[in-house]
Design brief:
- This protein is of the alpha/beta class and 301 residues long.
- It has 7 helices and 14 strands.
- Helix 4 crosses helix 6.
- The two termini are 25 Å apart.
- Bound molecules: zinc ion (ZN) (2 copies).
- One zinc ion (ZN) binds next to loops.
Length: 301
């Protein structure tokens, strides 16, 4: 099991997959990792999982039999890089008592049940999610509406500019907050005032900065943004720290480290998210703790 050092009431974040679109592999992709989007967020002991990309398999192995009986997976949207880890999530295989609840906000209130059922079925996949030991539940909502859970936890949501739509999330705990803004393409003009209001003053914004401004003219309309636009939004909205996420699989460690240095020259609390990187925010009255985990080498926030 990976190391966790924060107090039991901290807001904690661990990245299990930071790549966008598809995995990266090879000796030049070690520092920032391979897996597609999956982020573990703990509000105290309460677990939330943001997206179910291939990183979900690593998170599942880490949780193992100690996983909670009820697990909530907040999906940004259903593009393959955000859901392909679902049938490889080990806690789904270990208990018939477990309930795995998915939340989907970009389908006008419809849940992910029907599209996931089409994908995870022969001939595209040998097993249906309904055949796994755990019970899957599918909840639909409209991005922009808050989600309230049965334990009273409330999470804010926001519709993002992405082909077919995507949902951004804002999770708050003990006076701290983290915003998950993936996948998104910036608008013109930028920053978008509604998105800026949604992320205002957050402790950490995880942002789709797949490309650089120099690359963007080739990928306009693909539904992704740049690290420079992430910095612009952060500065306009008082975002305290910025994690660039949904990293392009063609950007190797050397590229990302150079881009990170360039970015930190204009926003010292910004960094490129690394797989397995861990960040903890102690309750607002206490000092922020930032333990970067096994691979991280970024400045304190
Ligand atoms: Zn994506
Ligand atoms: Zn997408």
């Amino acid at each position: 099991m990976v190391r966790r050092v924060a107090s039991s009431d901290a807001l904690q974040v661990r990245f299990w997959g930071t790549r966008g679109s598809t995995c990266a592999s090879g000796p030049q992709f070690v520092e920032f990792g391979s897996h597609t989007p999956c982020v573990e967020v703990r509000c105290g002991e309460r677990l939330f999982i943001l997206d179910a990309g291939t990183g979900l398999s690593s998170l599942g192995m880490d949780l193992g039999p100690n996983a909670p009986e009820k697990i909530d997976i907040l999906l940004s949207h259903l593009h393959l890089d955000h859901i392909s880890g679902l049938p490889f999530f080990k806690p789904a295989l270990l208990s018939t008592e477990r309930v795995i609840r998915t939340y989907c906000g970009h389908l006008e209130g419809e849940s992910a049940m029907e599209p996931l059922g089409r994908l995870f079925a022969p001939p595209l996949f040998p097993v249906r999610l309904g055949q796994l030991p755990a019970r899957f539940e599918y909840h639909g909502f409209r991005a922009g509406e808050p989600i309230t859970f049965d334990d009273g936890t409330r999470i804010e949501t926001h519709l993002l500019n992405h082909p077919g739509g995507a949902t951004g999330y804002r999770l708050s705990h003990s006076g701290r907050s983290v915003c998950y803004i993936s996948d998104v393409e910036h608008s013109d003009p930028w920053p978008d005032p509604d998105l800026a209001a949604f992320v205002r003053d957050t402790d950490l914004m995880i942002f789709d900065g797949m490309f650089s401004d120099a690359e963007y003219s080739y990928c306009r309309g693909w539904g992704h943004s740049t690290w420079q636009k992430g910095v612009e939004l952060s500065k306009a909205a008082g975002v305290k720290a910025l994690a660039i996420f949904h990293l392009y699989p063609g950007h190797d460690d050397a590229y990302l480290k150079a881009a990170e240095a360039e970015m930190q020259a204009v926003m010292p609390t910004a960094f490129m998210a690394r797989e397995r990187q861990f960040i903890a925010f102690e309750p607002a009255d206490d000092e922020t703790v930032a333990d970067r985990g096994e691979t991280a080498k970024v400045p304190a926030i």
